[in-house]
Amino acid sequence: MIIPTMNEEESIGEVLDEIHSALKPTGWDYEILMVDTNSKDRTREIGREKGAIIVDEPRRGYGRAYKTGFERATGDIIVTLDGDTTYPAYDIPRLVNILLKENLDFITTDRLSNMEKGAMSFKHRLGNWILAKTTNILFGLHLRDSQSGMWVFRRGILNKIKLTSDGMPLSEEIKIEAFKKVRAKEVPIKYRPRKGEVKLNSWKDGKENLKFLFRKKKMMKEELSLVEEKHSKEKDKEVEK
Description:
The chain is of the alpha/beta class and 241 residues long. It is built from seven helices and seven strands; from the N terminus they run βαβαβαβαβαβαβα. The chain has helices spanning 12-23, 43-49, 62-72, 92-101, 122-139, 170-181, 202-240, and strands at 2-5, 33-36, 53-56, 77-79, 106-110, 151-154, 184-188.
């Protein structure tokens, strides 16, 4: 379990309590990594009190926090969510069971199909729609929610996918990589209003995410070209033999 945090004292205790309530009855072994970026309130203290491992990551960035968490995680399955109560931690066992029963490698969640009142403004819903549409057109996908931050996946896929973003675009990037390279599925969840300070800069982050999609498309084209060139050279060597 990986949770990026920065000044989440209003909500992190509730999130951790919900995780424990969901996972203790399963009998599974689990760890909770809180990847914290310079919290100035009681976020870290509350996390330690409730059994989380605090991972210090002073470098700013949503993607950077997750990359650090991925490096430190030891479990076979990784679950991610935010520290602001928006994502349903009680749903973790259901999502893990879907992953296992359907022999999947990666699950991302769809927040937009079942949102509680006040969970997302019209501006955010519009931005999410634009980003999802662009993602689907550029990469041939069928995602309803390309920006969700709750994922459940096998840790082993980190060796198969390429994550380049240290910022908010990592959320869309991990989905693009997973749906192109491993067995992936999108599953609806309930999405709730957040508690605490809003850290998302809607227009700035939205524009950066949109620009990143075009950079990612270019990167994947270059990657494919290199793979094809390698295969061509290998075939030429076989013919020479």
